[in-house]
User: Fold this.
Amino acid sequence: MKEKRSEEYEVLEEVFDRSTLMTIYDFLNKGVIDEIHGVVKAGKESRIYWAKDKAGNELAVKIYLTVSAEFKRGKLPYIEADPRFKRIKRDTRSLVFAWAQKEFKNLEQAYAAKVRVPKPVAVKNNVLVMEFIGKNGVNAPSLKDVSPRNPTRIYRILLTYLKRLYRKAGLVHGDLSEYNIMVWRGLPVLFDVSQAVPLEHPMADMLLRRDLRNINRYFSKLGVEVLPEDELYRRITG
Assistant:
């Protein structure tokens, strides 16, 4: 196996298990990734690395940690009732792999519905490759970090996204807030869509209403004349 060596790869080898490293090297050997650099975001459940493909396009490589103790308890309710994942084993590693597949499928469905999300590129085991939102390894800011110049416009665009997500992609985001909405080149970008659920999921309605309350809460603080929750709900669900 041809391994591209650098300080970044040595750091990867110190952090991740052999299975994860083999998955990353597989993407390198197949040309999905040409080079991988440092961490741009690190959490308890995953890390995101900045990478590039052979054409120089910037990529985000999201690696779910297979040893996260809280993962099983927190994610199981979102997977159990998802008809796309009916025969998932209950061990943590299998759930992590399923969660990566779930995020990839959610991105595919949202992207096809013309919802602005990172374009999905590839997924295998606990590694997800997608479009990097930002430039030169610097993430686009989220709404929690910067207030939009025209909040009313961003609010209306987000409502259009939620409508498309519901009616065309058949999904509810389920964890929407200023923490996982970026603003890039004047447009909002939804990210962290792994927990999004299909409409037939028993929690879908509750999660949608929570998303709407979160969006209204954030934008009302910016002086936007937001729509009442029930009216929003009707507009999105039809």
User: Anything to note?
Assistant: The chain is about 40% helix and 20% strand.
